[in-house]
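Running this now, will post back.
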Amino acid sequence: MKNTLAVLVLSSFFVFTACKKNETAETSTEKNENKKAEEFVIDSVIVKDSTKVTDSLKLTYTSKLLVFPGIKDKSLLDSIYFQNNKIKDFSKAGLQAYLENEKNNYFSSVKNDNKDWASDIAYAQDWYSSSHMNLISNTNGYLHIQYTGSGYEGGAHDNYGFSERIFDLKNNKKLELKDITSTPKAKLEAMLMKNIDNINSGTMDGDGSVKNSEMLLVEKIPASNNFYFDDKNLYFHYSPYEIAAFAAGDITIPISWEELKGTLNAEFKERMKIK
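Update: finished.
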């Protein structure tokens, strides 16, 4: 009886010890993951300046670039700064110098291109160029950056646009649609057309909201690479004039994970914890 009791006590000890080890290992893994997230440093550089071309014409240049001191992979950095392919130095000082040079080039080009008639502008005008890189999220190793650009150089209104890009920090690459879903583009386009009014642009007329579908300029909505996602949906973002009239503004169309059920990439589904 004593031997049996001793065996039971010893067995319980080993089970308890194993559980504690598992809990410690899980806690250690969570701490390491949190530490990695904390160690992912993001900085930024901004240049904002203005100059007068004539008494009536003012130019303003604003630009912001994010800085990623922890990313060393050149192909990934080239993809992150895809709109600025002249960048060779990805350090904070290098990016600051790049923006200063871009500002000077912008001022010079506008002045030279308009020198013959700029003095004839009869009323005050403010022309500008603005571009920004904005960090939207960094979740499960997926870095979402939104690139915005806008400008005005005369005309009825200014112009603006958006570019959404997701970077897979685990695999050092820009995420493509095929990395998320195997759904054929034709089927995605049908879903986009079906869901176009699910998120309204907010444009109003005298009778209330104007539906996005009523301002379409295309017969089918392309499943472009301008996408992002959260835990509920895959979103496609369209700039003014891309699929609809300027009055519609920029349009975002969601496709739920439920609609894409059975077509999601296994690694993506696991990392995003999609059920």
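The chain has two domains: 39-174, 177-271. More later if anyone needs it.
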